[in-house]
Structures are given as structure tokens and as C-alpha cells.
Amino acid sequence: MDTPTKFAHIKGWGSDLDHANRPAYPKERTPPRLDPPVHWKEPEMQPRHVEVLRSTERPAMTPVFGSGQPPRGLSGGMRRFAFGYSENDLRHWLLLLLADRIDVGEGLVEDLASGHVPRIYSEMGGRAELQHNPVGAAKKALAVVAVLGTAYLLARRRSPRR
Fold first, then answer.
1. How many CB atoms sit inside 10 A of residue 46's CB?
2. What is the pTM of this model?
3. Are the C-beta atoms of residues 53 and 80 closer than 8 Å to each other?
4. Which of left, alpha, beta for 66 (phi over 0: left; psi -120 to 50: alpha)?
5. What are phi and psi of 35, to 5 degrees?
6. CA neighbours within 13 Å on the CB side: how many for 97?
7. For 77-107, how does the pLDDT look when each residue is reduced to its tens digit (9 = 90+)?
8. Residue 1 scores a pLDDT above 60
9. Which of these ranges, 23-27, 64-68, 112-116, has the smallest mean pLDDT?
10. Which of 112, 119, 56, 120 is nearest to 89 (CA)?
11. Domains of the chain: which residue ranges?
12. How far lies 85's CA from each of 66, 81, 122, 126, in Å?
């Protein structure tokens, strides 16, 4: 019994054997060739129509960047402040995370101001959680009831009695 057929039932076996015996190996190239070759050394600069925040590590603007969500409101101010710090500074990332959370709150306020009541339960995947993780959904429901009950008791305790 020769070695390849002896171990052929093991998935992936032989992938590290001699490359001459691998039919796909000559086609693998790192990096892959471009055909036809690109006609530029650097891509054409994308036009800027909105404010784009730039890292302190990058001296110039990159040729291509995202502009779908320009910074706005309190969260945008926090993002501008965060980009004053280097990317290897923990404050940079923590401020960006906090700005994301504040942006969610700003979005909820905007929705309510425009007369749209958000469906928070379904938008956060409540039905899927209930279907695929009923124990986790029950724990979350109990936690919400406990927090709301505690808040109610504290509010009732502080209100003047008649």
C-alpha cells in the first residue's frame, strides 16, 4: 500500500508534499500578476465633498477614502478630538467607541424628533434571539425587568408621600 492512498481519507492530507506533484501549484503566484498592468503609479485623488478625519500617522490624505458618514453633532466633535491622538494611544480608540455609542443615541433622538418611533426590539434582532437562543433572551428579559423594577422602586421611594 503506497502512502498517498493510505492517508487519502484524511481531509487536506498531502497539501504540504512536493510542489511538483501538486497540479495547482504552478498557477499560484504571490503576488498575483495583473493583466493588463495598471496604468497609474497612484490612484487619482477622490474629490472631497464632506469633512474627512485623518490619522496623525498619515501625513497626506489617502487617494481613496470613505465619505458616507461625515462627522456631525456631539459624536462628530468627539471623533475630531479622538483623531488628535495617535492610533497607538488607547484614548483614540476609546473616544471613537464612545462616539459610536453617542451617535446611536443621537440617531434615536433624531428619529423621535421626526415622528418615527424606532422598533428597538426587532432592529436589535429580538425575534432571532428568541428563536435561536431562548435562554439568552430570557436572561436579557429578566435583566431588563430587574433594572426597570429597581428604577421604579427608587423613584417611588424618593417621591413625597401624601
1. 14
2. 0.58
3. yes
4. beta
5. -135, 115
6. 5
7. 999 999 999 999 999 999 999 999 999 999 9
8. no
9. 23-27
10. 56
11. 49-118, 121-162
12. 20, 8, 37, 37
